Amino acid sequence: MDVRLHPLFQDWIERLADSADPGELSDVYVEVMALIAALEEYGRDLGDPECHPVVTASYDLYALRRSPPTSTTPYAMGPPVLRILFGFARDEGGTEVAVVTLGGDKTALGNAWYPANITQAQDRIDQWCQRNPSYKPVMKRGKWK
User: 21: how many CB neighbours lie within 10 A of its CB?
Assistant: First the structure.
């Protein structure tokens, strides 16, 4: 699957890469990139435990999970408990892309992390589609916006 990164997510991931010692990459950065690579490889077939649907979203939104440990992130046993939100956009020809919108640590907030971030993720999908006008956000159950 073609995976596109929202510019603000790109900024976030670059900060993760820069958080390690000089000359090294952060383990967390490597794990996040492994999750994105899994999304590219499996697309909509990527499922539990690496990702789960965000049931309260209006858009066809999902969360990649850094923890608990999975085959993609086998060493992710503790904090940060990252979630990386992504959704789908489709062009008029039916070609779908995954748009990765934001990432964050839900360690302190637990599931209370989701409401504000879901809204922000959906806004970022809209922004991405405005910059790429041949695409429209995919709503739940495959509906177009």
Answer: 7
Phi, psi of 29 (to 5 degrees): -60, -45
Quote the CA–CA distance of 110 and 145 in Å, as a whole number.
Answer: 30
CA distance 36 to 43: 10
CA-based nearest residue to 137, from 72, 69, 102, 86: 86
Q: DSSP characters for 98-140?
A: EEEEEEEE-TTTGGGGHHHHHHHHHHHHHHHHHHSTTEEEBBG
Residue spans of alpha helices (H) in the chain: 7-18, 27-42, 114-131
User: How many residues does the structure list for the chain?
Assistant: 145
Nearest to 82 by CA among 36, 138, 119: 36
pLDDT tens-place string over residues 45-54: 998 889 999 9
Taking the C-alpha atoms of residue 75 and residue 48, their distance in angstroms, rounded to an integer, is 17
Q: What is the pLDDT of residue 102?
A: 96
pTM: 0.90
Asked, as a colleague might, if the bond just before 68 is cis with ω within 30 of 0, I would say yes
Which residues in the chain come in under a pLDDT of 70?
20-25, 141-145
